[in-house]
Amino acid sequence: MIKIGFADYYLDNWHANYYPGFLREAIAKYGYDAAVTSAYALKDREDGMTSKQWCRKNHIHLADSMEEMICSVDAIMVIAADNSLWHEEVARLPLASGKPVYVDKTFAPDAETGREMFAWAGKHHTPVMSTSAQRYCTSIMDYLAREKGNTRFMSTVGPHDLSNYAVHQLEPIVAVMGTGAKRVKVFTAGDAVTEMIIDYGDGRMASFVQTPNPWAEFNFMVSDGEKGERLDSSDYYINTMKAILDFFETGISPVPREETMEVLKLIDAARKGRQKPDTWLALENETVI
Known about the structure:
With 289 residues, the protein is of the alpha/beta class. The protein has two domains: 2-130, NAD(P)-binding Rossmann-like Domain (Rossmann fold); 134-233 and 265-282, Dihydrodipicolinate Reductase, domain 2 (2-Layer Sandwich). 39% of the residues lie in helices and 22% in strands. The protein contains ten helices and 13 strands. A seven-stranded mixed beta sheet has the order 12-11-7-10-9-8-13, with helices on one face. Strand 5, helix 5 (111-123) and strand 6 form a beta-alpha-beta unit. Helix 8 (167-177) crosses helix 10 (257-275).
């Protein structure tokens, strides 16, 4: 059996609360021999459950230390999805473990930190996977199976802010369009609305619009330059869990590091572009060791 450990900043958060159930559903549906057996968090949530209460509720062993949790499992999920600023601290020991490590979205708060985390994992020969669950929307997976490489334009619309939710739009863009964006131009409307045009330098483009409205639904549109198609944001969590479980079995990430780094570079570019609206900003080529 694959024993899975949770590493978190604090365990009482939406992803950590729901992922055990999603994992159990995927395990039952696809016949994996796996279970979440241990968890450790750096602190208790001040306005929620303690780690001990969370583990008791979820029937998961609470380790006394990060080291104990790592030693007791075969694969690790670094959650801390509420704030990617915590990821480097929470992931440091897991990324040095040599065991498959899934790091929840957003992998890192910026591209520089992302490079350092990948380099640290590489030094210790630790396989790493990170993704937004939106990559695994059934409609996007089906579209890629039919049309990968044929997309000339993609547009996305979604809610919230750049630091925590931009990944949910940029992950599908990178999954569909690939890496190698050459430049971006950003427009703003107030403090929270961001529109970004992504130019690939070969006639292909993507459009990203983010609003502060938390009820705005994700909207993905794709086109081969002649016809368009809308892709639904649905049926993604169990697909994501399946991808993670496959990764834990094989040690091979289905998400290339270059794509994770492209997402981080685009988030950085969106932040910079908000300070220089209506100006083309170049993206550097990324080499991940």
